Amino acid sequence: MGATPSSPVPARVHVLLAGEAPVGVILRRGPSTQVATLLWNRKTDQFTMGQWFKGTIDERKSDLSPDGKHLIYFAAKYNSRDPMKTWTAISAAPYLKALVLIEGCGTWSSGGLWLTNDSYWCDDFKDVGAMQDSRAFRFDRNFKLQAGLDVYYTRLLRDGWERVRSATRQDKRDIFEKAAGPRWVLRKYNHYSNKHVIGRGSFWSEHELVHPNKEIVLPRPTWSWAEVEGNGVIWVEDGQLMRAEVASDGLGPTTLIRDFNDMSFEAIQAPY
């Protein structure tokens, strides 16, 4: 699978999963400066439309609360005439209307992370505070990211991934692993490059399924996002959200959960 030079570039899709509830938020990007959000009920595979945003939302600097009710996200409008180019906000998932709004101090150190359902960390808060605040949420001044970790890697470790190798000058890939199915491992390669590839940003991921005992490797380079789900895996490929069980001999039949490619901008108001 994958786009050819004559075919449309697939939507870039990332999923934020709640740690304590069967829900997720879809961040669907495409064209490059438009992002749509959707709420995913993982029990029924039903989706609730959130909002469209004309700008960029960085999924690596965003997070969904454990109960799935609130989203913290990093947004940017780099070409805007507005003096505020970047910010972090807390909203009622899957919408984007800010309940808490924190102006960004740049791109490398921004973003937010949920610590509990009502407490969070945001790198920019300690410098500028909140332009708009809410008593429903508390910034944790005592929390600090571990040295060498950003919001995304902290979230991966929190969600059960193990960092098995760090990037080097020769190989700029960080490798994470997570047990998947009967004795299989889902391996995630996180890449960084300032040479942009069509359909990818500076950071992107590839995956493979590995059976260490049988020395079997099933490369899945077109999986842009993947996660373990019960005895199976869920993943994004070419703008589509997919699911399959993991059997002793590899992946079982694949189920298409939803195709996010055929979507276009809509002006939607948040219901609050």
SSE order and pairing:
Layout: E1 12-17, E2 23-29, E3 34-41, E4 46-54, E5 56-64, E6 70-76, E7 86-92, E8 100-103, E9 112-114, E10 119-122, H1 125-128, E11 138-139, H2 151-158, E12 162-165, E13 173-180, E14 184-192, E15 203-211, E16 216-220, E17 223-229, E18 232-237, E19 240-247, E20 250-251, E21 255-259
Parallel strand pairs: 10-11
Antiparallel strand pairs: 1-2, 2-3, 3-4, 5-6, 6-7, 7-8, 9-10, 12-13, 13-14, 14-15, 15-16, 17-18, 18-19, 19-20, 19-21
Output the number of helix runs.
Answer: 2
Content of β-strand: over 45%
Helix percentage range: under 10%
The sequence of SSEs as H and E is EEEEEEEEEEHEHEEEEEEEEEE
Side-by-side strand order of the widest sheet: 12-13-14-15-16
**Total number of domains:** 1
Instruction: State mean pLDDT (0 to 100 scale).
Output: 91
Reported for the largest beta sheet, the result is: 5 strands, antiparallel
Count of distinct strands: 21
First-to-last CA distance: 40 Å
Rg is 18 Å
- Secondary-structure class: mainly beta
Label the overall shape. globular
Q: Poorly predicted ranges (pLDDT <50, ≥5 residues)?
A: none
Characterise this structure.
With 272 residues, the chain is mostly beta strands. It has one domain. It has two helices and 21 strands. A five-stranded antiparallel beta sheet has the order 12-13-14-15-16, with no helix packed on it. A hairpin with a 4-residue loop joins strand 15 (203-211) and strand 16. The longest helix is centred in the middle third of the chain and has 8 residues, at 151-158. It is globular, with a radius of gyration of 18 Å.
